[in-house]
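Quick one - inputs below.
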Amino acid sequence: MPREAEPSLNEKQFVLQALQENLRLDGRELDQYRPLDLSFGDQYGVADVTLGRTRVLAKATAEVTVPYADRPLDGIFTIATELSPMTSPAFEVNRPTETEVLLSRLLEKTVRRSGALDTESLCLVAGQKCWSVRVDVHVLSHDGNLIDASCLAVVAALRHFRKPDTSMDAGVLTVYTPAEREPVPLSWLHSPFCVTWSFFGDEADIAVLDATWLEEQVRVGSCTISLNKHGEICQIAKLGGTPVDAVALLQCTSVALTKVKEFSDLLDTKLAEDLKRRDKGGFMAELRAENER
Amino acid sequence: MTATTAPEAALGILPRADGSAKYSHAGYTVTGSVNGPIEAQRRDEHAYEAHVDVIVRPAAGVGGTRERHLESILQSSLSQLILVKDFPRSLIQIVLQVENSPENDYVDTKLVQASLNFSIMPALLQTAVLALLSAAVPMRATATATAIAVAQQGDHKKTIIDPSPRDIETAHSVHVLAFTSHDELLLAESEGDFTVRDWDDVYETAKRICCRSARPKEGMAMVLDEDDVGGPDMRHFLQSTMESKVAADLHWK
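Output:
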């Protein structure tokens, strides 16, 4: 496969010099995101995130399996990120690149290890049956800042997802089909989002949000901060060798919180809109099997 | 979920691929991208023709034997269409990402299905053809495809165009046929029990869907269409999609 074309020396200089003058090639502020759009599919658990020219599709699915022997009370939750040649011909099937490994690691740390999904609620029969929830992340188009877009897509897909309803009766487990009972949402604890800062210049003194692919190729380092709207930080990953001033990082974190609140609001409104769209006859409240918390 | 009756398509939706298309029909939604001709790897390189690489990616789970089988069928069909001899030692890469496939509300679906899923073939082939057109890859002809199931109704058999998963479950056999724009049969895959007469019926129905001759321009078209048998007019759909795309692209002129 051909290698991705690197920006020329002139191009790099141009981007850097513009950034030193507080200008970006697409006319954005340094701490401004590209237009962000989120849409849901016809089926439950499909979220499509468009961030400028970056586009990520996430799909959540669930099936009944046997839990891991060392964790009999927990369900299984996996996030699969595989970059296809659709993203760029430089990616090969079944050969993970650095981008892919970093993306899956960060998503894992942000969504799975922060306990966003209550895996204990996925257990059906201890040690015998549990739900296995899987999210597939498909990157359709890559124009920088894959991490933030993918994280939003994963969280949106999981919050939109409904798994089939089940019941236990005298030791017999019944899984109801969608025709029999309305599927139920997952037990979701908090919604973490990623905000990625990119650093430029020899001293890493220019910090930029939502870098495009061209900017990503020029940057000296990046820092991904994952937090929820309450300001609880799930993880911070600082990549790239150039050191960044501690005070600057603190500022980055506080800006990240305002961005995360925006993401959270966007997701909440989109979910509410989607619920309204599905609730055509107004029967949704009666069909629901779950109780109000 | 409601399955769309009329096919829908959008071209050139991915900014970085050479050509791309999103196609949805009968509940299936597929996004396809085409890159090519690009440099081929040593192991894929043919001295006299381009290598056509088809990658089918399921919406959920990793691709398995089923996807490899679909890929091999598509690869051999598309190599017939693309003028591969024009691009020796190069690669034409087609990635087909399934976004949505209709679900059967009456059964619990398992993620890993060993069974074949033929009814997705027309959507995959149609997306590939649209994406290839969008990438302006030289082709001998375009192609249109359809899926048809044969089911028992009372004491005689009936053909179902674009069967739903529930139809397939009850059907005797499922067939996928594709025709080139020269009315030649490109692909014929069948599954299940059927007789030669069944197949002939299926062939006629498929040919009517895929190879309907161009409509008269205005006026009398509506009257003529009424007595036509149901099913979408795939060739006209392909033509009108391309026409509207070209019209939009040449808007500045």
